[in-house]
Prior knowledge:
With 267 residues, this protein is mainly beta.
Amino acid sequence: MLSRARREDQKLAVNGTGINAIQSISLGYESTAQPISTLGQQNMIFAPGSPQTASIRAESLMVYDDFFLQFTGEVPFSGQLDYKNQNIKFTEAYLSSYSSSCSIGEIPSLAMQAEIYGEMGTGNYFDFGATSPHDTSLKVAGYNSIVINLDEFNTNRVLSYSLDIQTPRTTVYAFNDRTPSEVVSDSPVDVTLNFAIEADDYKIKNIRFVPEETVFRDVTIQINENNTNSSIQSFSFNNMLLISEQYSSDLNSNVSINFTLKGTIFR
């Protein structure tokens, strides 16, 4: 009897830890094989024309064990995706981007993307032993459990936020190596924060405010478990530069302001 791989049969584990609240996941590669032909030979042979890499992307709800934020540094991770009686394994994955977002009426969400410089596919590439079980009693955040500290929010209502962290890498290859000899974490790390607020007394800055009146802000986002003060995750950034503001209004809504802050983390 034919059957299909169903969503409830699929589980992701990273470094032996089951990852909870995954909403979507994709991983794969594109072949770099190029045909090579020579005089006096009828059959073509194929060889890699550039380094062979793969990628993984996952989206999840914000839960108490946000596992991927710790990999914005220099440490790689390995993992496996189980489905039915099969599993896809990958090694030496380096995070290239991390994001978090939430709007009123939504559960905060996460997304990450990583580049895989080791192995990926079905096979025995590694064994990190028994995988810790996936927790079935999820501690999920809610939009009503987010606390944001920024001067503009004392009297203006926050409608949404989005955070994006880009972690650039440089790969170093040597002759006769299929994988990088080293993966270097570049500096600085770029951080972008977007907020939408329902305006009360917010004042749009003058377009010519740079450089005489350049605006910097310290921002803290505290995300708690739904309807509690139990912390799930927090983000804190200093000296974020205001880079854009957008005013909008129509007949069906109050005045809203969308503005963007940008910062860098040196490491």
